[in-house]
Amino acid sequence: MATTTSVMRSEIADQSEALRATVDALLPLTPEIARLARETRQVLFIARGSSDNAAVYGSYLLQAHAGRLATLASPSIATTYGAKVDLSGVLAVAISQSGRTEEIVDTMRWAADCGARTVGVTNKAGSPLTEAADVALVTQAGTEVAVPATKTYTTQLAALAVLALGLGAELEPDELRRVPEAIDGVLAQPTDQLDTIVERLVGVHGAVVSGRGMAFSTALEGALKLKEACYLHAMGLSYADLLHGPIAVVDRDTPALIVAAESSPTLSGTVELARRVTSAGAPAYGIGGGDALAQACDVSVPGPDLPEWLAPIGLILPAQLITEQLARRLGYNPDTPRGLGKVTQTS
After folding, report:
1. If we measure between CA atoms, which residue out of 39, 36, 38, 49 comes closest to residue 75?
2. pLDDT tens per residue across span 208-230
3. pTM of the complete model beyond 0.85
4. 256 to 106, 247, 268, 274, 286: CA distances (angstroms)
5. Which BP terms does GO give this entry (predicted)?
6. Is 223 within 8 Å of 274 (Cβ atoms)?
């Protein structure tokens, strides 16, 4: 039976305060990050699940604004193959909400053994990840009870924004301090359009969630949420990849959720994707992107009032709200999706 309220919904509402506390706690650590920056050239992100989607944001952010090559690790190289890789000059950034996912902690330790310096991003002070890292960025999300990550995910994004500042990105820290206010603005928006999208998703078995650049991380995380809590066959794709064949799956019964920051250089391509989807007779639902994307979509939800480098912190909120509401509308409890727990151990 559907629940009338959920812990997930209350934790979505907690995000502005969690972000405010996280930014206040982590911005003073930029000198420690800068010290590591002087010893490294490249960045290797180590993560799984929602944390891996956060790492995608970090990768785009560091390459676009800090001038550093950033890649995503394959933890099995360390944990399964036991390979030795020269990581001198590399900053390994391990991201784990719990700080105790063995695969992530072990891979960060492996990276250190291979010559890397290390940063741990986690919500748990005193966890194995914080104890093993050269610098620990401990987010201030508080206890997260619902299995789908909401406030732990957005505070991870904030931690990666601080990382970018510490690594030399010429961005404005005061804009980061403005994020909680922008999150409050998203949460205060009228729900009519969001409610309409939820009702139109009832009965579909699959969806495509698409964005590009900084917003690609939001597409991946939005698709993951729909899979976790609503059991939809949701695919998160860059629109560049979507146009290389998978767009064939988008049809009347497989809608596209299309996400963009209003100030992004990828916005024009995102708008063209929405027009192509609707011209093919498929539904297109927008998240963010301002009037341009709204006019190209059947229904659209406004995004946050934030510059592109911070927009993903707010763009994920409508996807979280859609997921929570759709799960309850379908009769599922979004707090406890089947087969999932807060800590997933892999090898």
Report:
1. 49
2. 999 999 999 999 999 999 999 99
3. yes
4. 38, 9, 17, 8, 8
5. carbohydrate derivative metabolic process
6. no
